[in-house]
Amino acid sequence: MLQSTHQFIDLKILFEISRTIILIWILKLIYDIIYTAYLGPLSNIPGPKLFPLTRLFISCKQLFGYRWKFLQFEVVPKYGKFVRLGPKLVMISDKDAIKQILTAEFPKSGNYKMLRMNEQHQTLFFSIDKTFHKQRRRIISPAFSIKYIASLEKLILTCIKDLVYKVDEMLKCKGDVLNIVNLIQICAVVGTS
């Protein structure tokens, strides 16, 4: 009898501790939401009143295909070139500010190390070492230059013409059944070989 009473008291204490932990967690969550929305570093950026609380509002606009209209015709005219659309989401529609952000050298988060298959093996995408990243980027950057991409235009046009010709032929022979995804994949592979 005494042992079952003792177990009951232990369960009651465990329940009270669990309830207290859950209550503290909920209060912390509410505090974090309110702090991020109205007291944090982004709190001075204008935007729709409830948007700093959650990304749900802007996500709903996107879900129904109304996001771009909402941003272009309602948000930017009302709030300007810098608008807060979520707790940690800011839309910038000022070309000079965007250029400044894109050319600034921000440090990569240490979380990139966790994405590597091997901690010692660095890659261009997962390296946080600026020197390593700069060396690797310098090697591949010519492949993304405007001049090189423009030189591929003739090849791309040839591949597209071949693809369109093949689609026309297949539609004449087979009717209306055609695996366009497969044809585009073949076009991409043939174009690169």
Automatic annotation (TrEMBL):
Keyword Membrane present in the record's keywords: the answer is yes
Against Pfam families, the record matches this protein to:
p450
Needed cofactors, names only, are: heme
Among Gene3D superfamilies, the record links this protein to:
Cytochrome P450
Molecular function (GO) terms for this protein are:
heme binding; iron ion binding; monooxygenase activity; oxidoreductase activity, acting on paired donors, with incorporation or reduction of molecular oxygen
- List, alphabetically, the SUPFAM superfamilies matched: Cytochrome P450 (SSF48264)
Annotated InterPro entries: Cyt_P450, Cyt_P450_sf, Cytochrome_P450_monoxygenase
Q: Where exactly are the transmembrane stretches of this chain?
A: 21-40
Keywords annotated in UniProt: Iron, Membrane, Metal-binding, Transmembrane, Transmembrane helix
Is the keyword Nucleotide-binding in the record?
Answer: no
Family membership: Belongs to the cytochrome P450 family.
Spell out the protein name for this chain: Cytochrome P450
